Write a sequence for this structure.
């Protein structure tokens, strides 16, 4: 059984965090430590620790994460100039919170994709 992270508490609003979106499958809120002018996290309500733990039953949820990201990008006014969606996996991917999440970042030029 995977251990809950702070994100489960945010989903249940046990830690009050303004939500930008929530439905039966996903929740979105601003990153506490933004790396760009716009930095939003879109997460599944179900605890999935890493992308390695995703299975076929999660396909609807993963698709919803993208359609929600698209809508939030439009709400933020960053859709026309563009943005980046990022999902980190495990140590080499730089994952810090073990509840999968999609970073929506934009609002400025983001440069090259990788800096190693
Ligand atoms: P990762 O490195 O796992 O891909 O990204 C985790 C992200 O979660 C980081 O960008 C970090 O700033 C964000 N984060 C960690 N704890 C909290 C929190 O309590 N509230 C919010 N809003 N974001 C958090």
């Amino acid at each position: 059984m995977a251990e809950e992270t702070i994100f489960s508490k945010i989903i249940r609003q046990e830690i009050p965090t303004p939500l930008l979106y929530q439905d039966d499958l996903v929740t979105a809120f601003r990153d506490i430590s933004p790396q760009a002018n716009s930095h939003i996290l879109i997460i599944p309500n179900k605890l999935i620790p890493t992308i390695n733990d995703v299975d076929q039953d999660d396909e609807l949820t993963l698709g919803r994460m993208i359609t929600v990201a698209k809508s939030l990008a439009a709400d933020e006014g960053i859709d026309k100039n563009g943005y980046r969606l990022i999902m980190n996996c495990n140590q080499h991917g730089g994952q810090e919170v073990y509840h999968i999440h999609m970073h929506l970042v934009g609002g400025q030029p983001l440069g090259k994709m990788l800096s190693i």
Notes: The radius of gyration is 14 Å.
